[in-house]
Amino acid sequence: MEVRVFELTLVSAKDLENVRSVFRDRVRVYAKVSLGDNPRTKKRTRKDKRGQTNPVWNFKATYIIGKNTVASHDIKLLIRFYCPRTGRVSEIGEASVSLKELFDRFSSLPQGEDSAKANYPVKFCGNECSQGEVCLTFKFGDVFDFVPPSVDWRKLCLDGTIFVLKVGALCLSLTLLVKENKFNDVPIDAAAEVARLASDILSQIKEICESRGVFVVVD
Questions:
Q1: Phi, psi of 67 (to 5 degrees)
Q2: Which pTM was predicted?
Q3: Which residues, including other chains, have CB under 8 Å from residue 211's CB and lie 6 or more apart?
């Protein structure tokens, strides 16, 4: 599959609506970024605690997108802004722009510039009236062939089976020792081996999740 890397930096926003009617100086804005409404592409910034209605994040997000994703206006970069309040979260507004528009802007950069910068209006729930704007930078990489990383499922299943058996043996040993009040004879080496196996399995699972989920191919 032919794909390219899309790198985005959500720099800041300014002049956002203050949704707090009380404690209006306690606005803590964060944003959620996604490609369309695809839940696998959603990423969230930290809460800005200083800028109030002019938050700054410099939040970076990276996606692998299909080569043809930038050929039409169907898939959009969607940025939604929120402010947490007591017992609830208020949505401030959203900004959206198609990946094609971003790609066209990036493609028209003068030679020597490797990233584009743009500001887009923040609107509330499809309302045509804007309240503030968001600033972002972005760039697109060259097209390359994407090959999903292989997973050694046999090794993972074998390690998991061994882990379950050793946990069972350890639990049985501990049960017998407790019944005989021999707490000084706890098999430390066996417990350490179980912990090592658990760590190894978790590392393999983490590697699989990262390889399959951090970069999401969008067609």
A1: -55, -40
A2: 0.69
A3: 148, 149, 151
